[in-house]
Each structure stands twice: as structure tokens, then as C-alpha cells.
TrEMBL record:
Residues 56-130 form the Thioesterase domain. This is PaaI family thioesterase. It comes from the Bacteria. CDD domains: PaaI_thioesterase (cd03443). It comes from Sphingomonas alba. Gene3D superfamilies: Hotdog Thioesterase.
Length: 152
């Protein structure tokens, strides 16, 4: 049995549990990995039920995955408070078709009140389909007050 995570590692595992507990992820099935503070990977499958009328992923899916990837990259640096998205800029670069995809998040700047992080979506062929940049504000919500925030 592996040893129990402590410190920064425990915080990242608790954030992964928080992501898994969010009801929205029952609509957008996905799996998050936080390899280290400031980085995130969200693996997901693009399915036809997320398509618009022209048979590619609707912008809702792009936004959800990019925002989550950037958010969790930034919140990996904050162990006491939940961050809130205050703005997000999204650029579509290629239609996202059915198949596997990964949203990769990366913290860029900020360590006190406002954080900036970026994310991109890469499809199963390795091509970028979208990218975005978000700003995130430290809230008054304690992470430990959230039912899903727990080390596994």
C-alpha cells in the first residue's frame, strides 16, 4: 500500500477528488490529473451528444474543458481557498471531432489574489483544437468546507 500523501501532494489529490465530485462531470465525463502545482491534464472523450448541427463539438465542451484545466492548474498553487473564474478568453483553432482529447492547463502568473492560467485542447492526432487564457480570483470559500475536497 502506498504511503498517504502529505503537504502539496495531498492538496493536489484533494483537488482531483473535488473535480471528480462535481455534478457537471456526469454530463462531461472526464478524468483529471494534477502532476504538480501549476499543471493539469484533463482527459476526455468527445462524443456525438456534444456535437452541434455540423457534427463537431459545441463550444460548450471547449469552454468547460479549457476553463477547468486552467482553473485547476492555478488552484494547485492555492491550498486554502477556492478560486473563481473572473474572465476567460477562448480561441477555436480546429473542429473537435469524436475521439479522445486532452485539455492541458498551465499557471502563468499571480500568487496572491489574482491568478492567470492558460489551457489548450489537443485531439487524438496531437493537433491543437483550441486554447484559452483565464483569470482566477481567490474567493472566501475555504477548500476544506467543500464536501468533495478530500485526500483519497
Amino acid at each position: 500500500m502506498p504511503p498517504e500523501a502529505t503537504g502539496a501532494e495531498a492538496h493536489l489529490r484533494a483537488l482531483e477528488a473535488l473535480y471528480d465530485s462535481a455534478p457537471i462531470n456526469h454530463l462531461f465525463e472526464s478524468r483529471i490529473e494534477l502532476p504538480k502545482a501549476g499543471q493539469s491534464l484533463i482527459k476526455f472523450e468527445v462524443k456525438g451528444d456534444a456535437f452541434h448541427a455540423a457534427n463537431a463539438a459545441h463550444g460548450t465542451l471547449y469552454f468547460k474543458m479549457l476553463d477547468d484545466a486552467a482553473f485547476y492548474a492555478a488552484n494547485g498553487l492555492v491550498s486554502d481557498r477556492f478560486l473563481l473564474t473572473t474572465a476567460f478568453n477562448l480561441h477555436f483553432t480546429k473542429p473537435l471531432k469524436a475521439g479522445g482529447a486532452v485539455a492541458e492547463g498551465r499557471w502563468i502568473s499571480g500568487r496572491r489574489r489574482v491568478f492567470v492560467a492558460e489551457a489548450r485542447i489537443v485531439d487524438s492526432s496531437g493537433e491543437e483544437c483550441a486554447r484559452g487564457t483565464g483569470t482566477f480570483l481567490r474567493s472566501h470559500i475555504a477548500l476544506t468546507s467543500l464536501k468533495g475536497y478530500r485526500a483519497s
